[in-house]
From TrEMBL:
Protein name in UniProt: Chromosome partition protein Smc
Species of the source: Rubellimicrobium rubrum
Coiled coil: 160-201, 350-457, 820-851, 939-980
Keywords annotated in UniProt: ATP-binding, Coiled coil, Cytoplasm, DNA-binding, Nucleotide-binding
Protein family according to the UniProt entry: Belongs to the SMC family.
């Protein structure tokens, strides 16, 4: 990996896009304090995956975004891109962060995880925490670090930083798997307790179901009582609704009669309204006639005024027409004088036109003769030029064809030579390819045989491995199950409490008698053994036999008990459950009978059944657990030993499979290699044969082409000779072109003469035509003015006639106003009479309307009575509908709750007469519900839950076995990682130690230095101590050296790591600050040597002039704008070359 370019945009003080090229050799970064030089190092670490804000000198990771200045606003995001080359390909990593949005990586344009980026750089001996990125003060930190922290330098040299991350991940997964395994064991124990509880719940659920069935019968009876009551209410509501409907019908008949009377009154009104309307129309019509006569009078007066005005206009028009007649007469006199002048000028015009036409015809004939001569000369010149050009073009074409034929013949000759050489090479290669193909086929056959043998050996190994794995898994599952059961039982026994000092400590109860002993002794087992006070005391046995009947055995003869319990147990007899009630009455004082189930009968008449003795049951369960525990632990230990043995068998089988797999894989690889070799040989042979056939075909084609080219060359050469001779015998084209030019000049002169003659002729014609046009216009204007004169005289006559007619119209219009006044008087009298008739008709109409209103009031009263009757009917109907709804609801409730019709419900209940009264049913239902509630909460799914719980328990047992196998595999993987890490650490330590001593002597000019392991021998856990002895001093630790010596020693260690595992880039941030000029020189010499010996590219941030002078190139960081960094660069080596 070679880093080539670092680009910053909005990162810290670099607000603008800035690019830093990381070139080979030494690159210096200079600038004043506080200008942002260290931000370049932090940008490099940030893009390599740094996640701690404190390492970026911030409180939060968003602090790396440009925060703004007084002149610039803050950026919303920041970005750093790092370009690197690997395997000849340049790739770019981009890390971008947004405010309140977190950061994201892109690798080669695709999204990537931060962990992938960190592991990639760790595998390349670099990364955000690499010792190669030396920030300010890091040299002092390396000097003051604890040896265990200093071990990271060796890890970087060994290249195990990525291995350490994978080792830590494997360790975390192992711890998580072990924790999950422990949780599974605890869950399995809890499931067993839940299973026992579910079995008890199943018994309660059965009782609950029986009571629920009885409650369901009682609820069905109540549903029937509710339905029957609703039916009775519905029948009563239907009868009332019928009565109310009859009353409403009678009220509606009365309302109908009132409506008919009102309609009769309404029928009488239209004639009266029509008579009143006719009177109003007659008055209106007469009033309209009067208004029309008034308008007619106004129109007659206006007409009279209009006629008088028209007479005045007529007088003015008559005067105007007389003036027009005089004007037309004067124009006629003027036109006739002009016509006489033009007629005199046109005399002799015909002879002049005839002479001009004769001159034009003579010029046209001369032109025609000249153009004919020109055409003939032009055709001769064109024909000669075309023949010459065609001959020359033919000579040129034949020359080019001859050259092409010669070149084609040369190419064909060369192609034939090359084809023959290629054919000879292909034949030689074909012989070698055939031999190689035969050898490859033989190797492939051998590889197939070896692969068949390896796969045949692999199948039995895999079968044995599968068998061993199944046996080991079964054994481990059984061992894990027994161990979990033993642990659970141990916890339960511990929860029962210790029996130390109690009388029950020495009690040994055979299996199956725990309930009987617990019923006989109960809580007395918890009492201590004492000499005096509360507790058990040893007493002598009873005198004589207890006198137990046949079939009864004393518990003292069946259990191993301490002497303190001898008297008690001798008076407790074990009996079968069915015989106890018969023997109860014959018990003597102090005697008791118990069964194996835990039932107790006492001599004094007291009896306790096992189902009611919870305390005794708990004590019996505790005894069972205590007696079961030792055997269970022994069984678990044996199962664990068998699991270990099965695991060993499995491991051996797995190793056998691995060996067989390795052999088979080797055989497959050998076969693939042989197959590739055979395929390659076949391809080579095929390619060689194709090359030979191609060379043969090319040779044949080249021979044919050579023959064709030679024939074409001879043919074109003969044609060229013939064409050259033909061209030499042709006439000269220049003479023909000169003759055509002279003929053209003569034709031009004739054309000019023709144009002049025709121009003179046209001038004369235009003058004659102009005079003729003017004479015609004078004739036309004469006719126009004559017509105007006649029209003016005619209009004057017409206007005299119209003047007389207007005088007559004026006299007639003066008589019309008197006639109109007479008609207006007649209309006024008729209007007065029509108004009187109208008033009489309106009076009769008012009387009819009053009668109509009386009948309308009667109708409204009848309608109100009918409405009230309808409301009563509607209320009855609503009551009927409500009763029907309640009946339907009762039936729907039956269907909803029972999914039955009422009749089907009655069929399930039997004879309705046998159904108890509703109150009795309610009392029975309440009693049944109290009995159900007394049972308490019931799990109706207890049986299903128990079955599911058993399945879950089986699954968990299998998962525990799988987890155990996974834990074993993780332990093995972790062991492999540790072993690999230790080997690589030891190797790197030796190489770094040797290089460190050499570089120390180089920097100090002598002396001695070495690294040592401290705090243990394990390279993965031990620390690294630095021992140094500069010239003239004793050997000691790093803390005993001066500041400059410490810096040089730390640099020697860092550079030793580079020589062992060169990093892609090394950044040194002001590490030369503690050094004097002499040591800075040594430091720069070492940098030059490191740059030459390794591929590491160095970025050196410095203020020292000596260091600046030794750099290959310099970047300057400036802050021209406050708070904003900028980058400038100069290549010192290029500058030196220019100066030289």
């Amino acid at each position: 990996m070679r880093l080539t370019r670092l680009r910053l945009n909005g990162f810290k003080s670099f607000a603008d896009p800035t690019e830093l090229h990381i070139a080979p050799g030494l690159t210096g970064v200079v600038g004043p304090n506080g200008c942002g030089k260290s931000n370049l190092l932090e940008a490099l670490r940030w893009v390599m995956g740094e996640t701690r804000p404190t390492q970026m000198r911030g409180q939060g990771m968003e602090d790396v975004i440009f925060a703004g200045t007084t002149r610039r606003g803050a950026r919303a995001w920041g970005e750093v891109a790092l370009a690197f080359e690997r395997d000849g390909t340049e790739t770019e990593i981009v890390r971008r962060i947004a405010r309140d949005g977190g950061s994201a990586y892109r690798l080669a344009g695709k999204e990537a995880r931060a962990r992938d980026i960190q592991v990639m750089f760790a595998d390349a001996a670099s990364g955000a925490q690499s010792p190669a990125l030396v920030r300010q003060g890091q040299i002092s930190e390396l000097i003051g670090q604890k040896p265990t922290a200093r071990r990271r330098v060796i890890e970087e040299a060994a290249g195990v930083a990525g291995l350490q991350a994978r080792r830590a991940e494997a360790s975390q997964r192992l711890n998580a798997a072990e924790a999950n395994l422990q949780k599974l064991e605890e869950v399995t124990g809890a499931l067993a307790d839940r299973l026992r509880a579910l079995e008890r719940q199943a018994r309660n659920a059965q009782k609950y179901r029986e009571l629920a069935a009885a409650i369901r019968v009682a609820e069905g009876q109540l549903l029937w009582h509710a339905f029957a009551a609703a039916q009775e209410v519905l029948a009563a509501a239907e009868g009332d609704a019928r009565t109310r409907a009859g009353l409403a019908a009678r009220a509606e008949e009365a309302a109908l009669e009132a409506a008919q009377a009102r309609e009769a009154a309404e029928d009488a009104l239209p004639p009266l309204r029509a008579a009143a309307a006719e009177g109003a129309q007659a008055a209106t019509r007469l009033r309209t006639q009067g208004e029309a006569e008034a308008a007619e009078a106004r129109r007659a007066a206006q007409r009279l005024r209009d006629l008088e005005k028209a007479a005045e206009d007529m007088a003015r028009d008559e005067a105007r027409e007389s003036g027009l007649a005089r004007e037309a007469l004067e124009a006629l006199v003027r036109l006739r004088a002009e016509g006489e002048r033009l007629g005199a000028a046109a005399e002799g015009e015909a002879e002049q036109l005839e002479a001009a036409a004769e001159l034009s015809e003579a010029a046209a004939d001369a032109l025609q003769e000249a153009e004919a001569a020109l055409q003939q000369a032009t055709e001769v010149a064109a024909r000669v030029a075309a023949q010459v050009e065609a001959a020359e073009r033919q000579v040129q074409d034949l020359g080019r064809a001859r050259d092409r034929a010669a070149a084609e013949a040369a190419r064909a000759t060369l192609g034939l030579t090359e084809a023959e050489a290629a054919l000879r090479r292909a034949e030689a290669q074909g012989e070698g390819a055939a031999e190689i193909a035969a050898e490859a086929e033989e190797a492939l056959a051998n590889a197939d045989e070896a692969l068949t043998d390896a796969e045949a050996a692999l199948a039995p190994a895999r079968e044995a491995d599968a068998t061993a794995r199944a046996g080991a898994a079964e054994a481990q599952a059984r061992a894990a199950g027994l161990a979990a059961e033993a642990r659970t039982l141990g916890r339960l026994v511990a929860a029962d409490g210790s029996r130390a000092g109690q009388v029950g400590e020495g009690l040994r109860v055979p299996e199956g008698l725990e309930a009987a002993v617990a019923a006989a002794l109960g809580r007395d087992l918890r009492a201590p053994v004492v000499e005096e006070g509360s507790g058990w005391t040893r007493l002598p046995p009873y005198d004589g036999d207890a006198g137990w009947p046949q079939g009864v055995r004393a518990l003292s003869a069946l259990v191993e008990a301490p002497p303190e319990l001898a008297r008690r147990l001798s008076r407790v007899g074990l009996v079968e459950a069915g015989a106890a009630p018969d023997l109860w009455t014959g018990l003597r004082p102090g005697q008791r009978l118990v069964t194996r189930d835990g039932d107790l009968w006492r001599w004094d008449g007291f009896c306790v059944l096992a189902t009611d003795a919870a305390e005794a049951a708990a004590e019996a369960e505790a005894m069972r657990r205590a007696s079961r525990l030792p055997g269970l632990r022994s069984e678990a230990e044996e199962a664990a030993e068998r699991a270990e043995a099965a695991k060993a068998v499995q491991d051996e089988a797995a190793r056998s499979v691995a060996r067989a797999n390795a052999a088979a894989e080797a055989a497959r690889n050998a076969r693939r290699a042989a197959e590739r070799q055979a395929q390659e040989a076949a391809r080579v042979a095929g390619r060689t044969e194709a090359d030979r056939a191609l060379a043969q075909a090319k040779g044949d084609a080249a021979r044919d082409a050579l023959g064709r080219a030679r024939a074409a060359l001879e043919e074109t050469q003969a044609a060229l000779s013939q064409a050259t001779e033909l061209r030499a015998g042709m006439p000269d084209a220049r003479l023909a072109r000169m003759a055509a030019t002279e003929a053209g000049s003569r034709a031009g002169a004739a054309r000019a003469a023709l144009l002049a003659a025709r121009a003179a002729e046209e001038d004369r014609k235009r003058a004659a035509a102009g005079r003729a046009r003017r004479l015609a216009e004078i004739a036309r204007e004469d006719g126009l003015w004559s017509g105007r004169h006649e029209a003016a005289q005619a209009r004057a006559v017409e206007m005299g006639t119209r003047r007389d007619r207007l005088a007559q119209d004026i006299a007639e219009a003066a008589d019309i106003p008197a006639e109109i006044a007479a008609r207006q008087a007649e209309i006024a009298a008729a209007l007065e009479e029509a108004q009187a008739a109208r008033h009489r008709a309106e009076a009769r109409l008012a009387e009819g309307e009053m009668a109509l209103r009386g009948r309308q009031d009667a109708e409204r009263m009848a309608e109100r009575a009918a409405s009230e009757a309808r409301e009563v009917r509607a209320g009855a109907e609503a009551a009927r509908v409500a009763a029907a709804d309640r009946a339907l609801a009762a039936g729907a409730r039956i269907r909803e709750e029972r999914d039955l019709s009422p009749r089907e419900l009655l069929d399930t209940l039997g004879d309705p007469r046998a159904i108890p009264a509703e109150a009795a049913v309610q009392a029975d239902l309440a009693a049944l519900r109290r009995r159900r509630d007394a049972i308490g909460p019931v799990n109706l799914r207890a049986e299903e839950d128990a079955r599911a719980l058993r399945e879950e328990q089986d699954v968990l047992v299998r998962e525990a076995a799988d987890l155990s196998a996974a834990v074993a595999e993780l332990r093995q993987a972790l062991s492999v990682l540790n072993r690999e890490g230790r080997d690589r650490m030891r190797e790197a330590f030796g190489r770094v130690n040797a290089e460190f001593g050499r570089l120390f002597r180089t920097l100090f000019g002598g002396g001695e230095a070495r690294l040592t392991w401290v705090d243990g021998d394990d390279p993965l856990e031990a620390g690294v101590e630095i021992m140094a002895q500069p010239p003239g001093k004793t050997l000691g630790t790093l803390s005993l050296l001066s500041g400059g010596e410490q810096t040089l020693t730390a640099l020697a260690l860092i550079f030793a790591v580079f020589l062992v595992a060169p990093a892609p880039v090394c950044v040194l941030d002001e590490v030369d600050a503690p050094l004097d000029d002499a040591n800075v020189g040594r430091f720069c010499d070492l940098l030059d040597a490191m740059a030459r010996e390794t591929q590491t590219r160095f970025l050196v941030i410095t203020h020292h002039a000596v260091t600046m002078a030794r750099m290959d190139r310099l970047y300057g960081v400036t802050m021209a704008e406050r708070g904003v960094s900028q980058l400038v660069s100069v290549d010192l080596r290029a500058a030196e070359a220019m100066v030289a």
